[in-house]
C-alpha cells in the first residue's frame, strides 16, 4: 500500500514510461477500489527523473475515502495529446491489470495543463470515466489563441478539432463534470473556464462550476 513509482514498456517505441500510484490500506482486504487518474500541470523543468507527485490534499482525500490514485508521466509537457494521451490510457490499463480497480468508478482529474488534458481525454473517451474534475484548465484552442477557425488552413482545423473538447461537445453530454477556477488566475485567465463551461452546459446540465474568490492559479 501507499505511494510507489511503477512503469511499463511502451509498445510504440520500446521505451520505459513511469507512473506514480497510490493504494489505500483497504487494498489489503481485496475487493474493487475506485481510482482517480491525476494529470499534472506544465513545468519547463519537468523530465522523466524530476516530475510531479500527487497534491497533498488529493492524497488526504484518497486515504480518507479509500481511492487508488495514478499519475502518468505522459512524456512530460505534451498537453496530454498524441503520445501523452496514449501514455495516460496505458497507465490506466496497467493499474487495472495489476490491481483490483473498479472500472465503473474511475475519475479523471487534472490541473492547468492537466485540466486541459481532462477536457481532451474526457471528450475522446467518455465511456472510460465516471466523472471529470478540471481545475484551472482550458478547453478551446481558438478562444485560447484568439484566432478564428476559418482563418486557419484546413489541416490545422482538423488537428485542433481532433484534440480540443470544444469541437467534441456531444461526447460530454452524459458525464458528470466538476470545474473550478481561481477568479484572479494569472496563468490561465478565468474567462477560459467560463467559456468552456457555458458551452458544455448547452449539451450537459450536470456541470458544477466554482470560481474561487481572489484565488490565483494554484487552487488544488
Topology:
Elements: E1 2-10, E2 15-23, E3 33-39, H1 56-65, E4 68-72, H2 83-98, E5 101-111, H3 113-124, E6 131-135, H4 141-145, H5 154-163, E7 177-182, H6 190-201, E8 207-212
Parallel strand pairs: 3-4, 3-5, 5-6, 6-7, 7-8
Antiparallel strand pairs: 1-2, 2-4
Explain how this protein is built.
The chain is α/β, with parallel strands linked by helices and 220 residues long. It has helices spanning 56-65, 83-98, 113-124, 141-145, 154-163, 190-201, and strands at residues 2-10, 15-23, 33-39, 68-72, 101-111, 131-135, 177-182, 207-212. Strands 1-2-4-3-5-6-7-8 form an eight-stranded mixed beta sheet, covered by helices on one side. α1 links the parallel β3 and β4. It is globular. The two termini are 24 Å apart.
Largest β sheet strand count, sense and barrel closure? 8 strands, mixed
Whole-number mean pLDDT: 96
Low-confidence stretches: none
The level of helicity is 25-40%
Percent of sequence in beta strands = 25-35%
Structural class: alpha/beta
Shape: globular
Describe the strand arrangement of the main beta sheet, using strand numbers: 1-2-4-3-5-6-7-8
Oligomeric form: single chain
Computed CA radius of gyration, to the nearest angstrom: 17 Å
Number of E strands: 8
Distance between termini?
Answer: 24 Å
One letter per element, helices H and strands E, the order comes to EEEHEHEHEHHEHE
Q: What is the overall number of helices?
A: 6
Short account of what is shown:
It is built from six helices and eight strands.
Amino acid at each position: 500500500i501507499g505511494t510507489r513509482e511503477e512503469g511499463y514498456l511502451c509498445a510504440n517505441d520500446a521505451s520505459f514510461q513511469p507512473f506514480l500510484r497510490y493504494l489505500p490500506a483497504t487494498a489489503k482486504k481485496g475487493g474493487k477500489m475506485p481510482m482517480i487518474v491525476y494529470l499534472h500541470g506544465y513545468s519547463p523543468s519537468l523530465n522523466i527523473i524530476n516530475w510531479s507527485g500527487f497534491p497533498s490534499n488529493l492524497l488526504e482525500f484518497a486515504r480518507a475515502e479509500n481511492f487508488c490514485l495514478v499519475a502518468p508521466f505522459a512524456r512530460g509537457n505534451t498537453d496530454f495529446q498524441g503520445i501523452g494521451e496514449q501514455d495516460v490510457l496505458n497507465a490506466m490499463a496497467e493499474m487495472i491489470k495489476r490491481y483490483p480497480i473498479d472500472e465503473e468508478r474511475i475519475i479523471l482529474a487534472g490541473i492547468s495543463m492537466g485540466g486541459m488534458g481532462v477536457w481532451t481525454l474526457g471528450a475522446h473517451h467518455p465511456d472510460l470515466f465516471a466523472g471529470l474534475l478540471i481545475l484551472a484548465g482550458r478547453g478551446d484552442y481558438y478562444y485560447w489563441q484568439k484566432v478564428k477557425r476559418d482563418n486557419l488552413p484546413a489541416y490545422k482545423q482538423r488537428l485542433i478539432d481532433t484534440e480540443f473538447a470544444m469541437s467534441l461537445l456531444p461526447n460530454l453530454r452524459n458525464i458528470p463534470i466538476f470545474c473550478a477556477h481561481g477568479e484572479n488566475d494569472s496563468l490561465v485567465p478565468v474567462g477560459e473556464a467560463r467559456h468552456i463551461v457555458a458551452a458544455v452546459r448547452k449539451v450537459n446540465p450536470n456541470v458544477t462550476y466554482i470560481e474561487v474568490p481572489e484565488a490565483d492559479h494554484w487552487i488544488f
